[in-house]
Amino acid sequence: MGDILEPGEIIKPQLSLEEAKDLLKRLYGLTPITIKEFNSYDDRNFYFTVESKTSNLHLGTIWPHGYILKVTNKGDSKDPSFSDAQNEMILHMADAGLAVPEPVKNCAGNFKSMETLMTDNKTSQNIVRLLKFIPGKTFYEIEPWTTDHFYQCGEFLARMDKSLATFSHTAYDNRNSIWFLSSIPAVKDFVLAVSDDEKRKLVVDIIDKFCEIVIPASKDMEKGIIHGDFNEQNILCQKNDATGEYEISSVIDFGDSQYNPLLYEVSIAIMYMMTKCTVISPTMAGGHVLAGYIKHRDLPMLERKLVRTCVAARYAQSLVMGAYSYSQDPGNEYLLITAKTGWKTLSDFWSLGEDELYKKWDSTISMYDSSVNKKEYLSSSL
């Protein structure tokens, strides 16, 4: 069911490259040519190119772009139905025309298997899956991020949310994780990982505000299955041959997918667009994301009113959990990516009151759509 992480608990699997190769051969009948590990907080993700022959009768044609072997952490592996839900969610999105990493069957004809591996120097049961690799660059690799990218992210998100409006799975009914925005109250248990008093006060203030105004209102928000982690490492870009520019094309890693308010989806995305925003002030990125998003899904008045607090809460959550994870895994610089610019960006963002921020974002939104109802799109909610 995705239990809330406890402070001090290590859930990431231990696995060498050779062991990952052995899993690929044994479970999927594929012979690796190259292997590369991708970054992840709690799981292990290995990218393989493979030989063109296979002993797996359920595989069909070898996918020419390679595969991702995904080894799930021991916490999420306690809920095998959630892996089934992720697979079905991805296939549902593929049917809607979205380019997503589809799962493939193993030699036994299943989309997953449970393997005995190691976590924190003890044996653990871990779910192993194989997904088709979607070629392209991660958004993190793109320089610079432009306002066009932010608008495209908003559009992609809304299209994804609309495609998922007709998807459901019982595995999401009681699922929880420390990374869900709905779990912001539990993030307070981890704030001591932030050693600086001023920074710690900043995130506590934001968490308290979220608990005060967002949690009580969440019962009245439109809900659905959301991706839940639309960040620069999970967004894929393809080059447009006509323009030579990279454009938002796909999303990967559905390990934080969840049933929650749709507002959380776009708020999470806005936060991550701010992390490496250099062409404009990071606080302005949200206006471009929302302009793209509302082209396909209008925000109800309640969501407009609460979006600033939700964005800030995700930033606080990311910084706190990044600091905590680094304390558990010193030397893993991936865990500090958000913190490089994050503390200043969050402080600047939170120092802007709703009135001022929403006026700025409304001005951006009206650049894309000058109709009367867009001129005070967010401000009208205050």
Question: What characteristic shape results from the CA principal axes?
Answer: globular
Task: Name the helicity range.
Answer: 25-40%
List unreliable stretches of 5+ residues: none
Count of strand segments: 10
Computed structural class: alpha+beta
How large is the count of helical segments?
11
H/E topology pattern = HEEEHEEEHHHEEEEHHHHHH
Strand order of the largest sheet: 1-2-3-5-4
Sheet with most strands: 5 strands, antiparallel
Provide the β-strand percentage band. 15-25%
Q: Average pLDDT, to the nearest integer?
A: 94
Rounded Rg: 21 Å
Tell me the distance between the termini.
Answer: 37 Å
What is shown here, in short?
This protein has helices spanning 17-28, 80-95, 147-163, 184-187, 197-217, 262-274, 285-293, 301-328, 339-351, 354-368, 372-375, and strands at residues 30-38, 44-54, 67-71, 113-119, 122-132, 137-138, 223-226, 235-239, 246-251, 258-261. 45% of the residues are buried.
What descriptive keywords fit this protein?
382 residues, alpha+beta, five-stranded antiparallel sheet, three-stranded antiparallel sheet, 10 strands
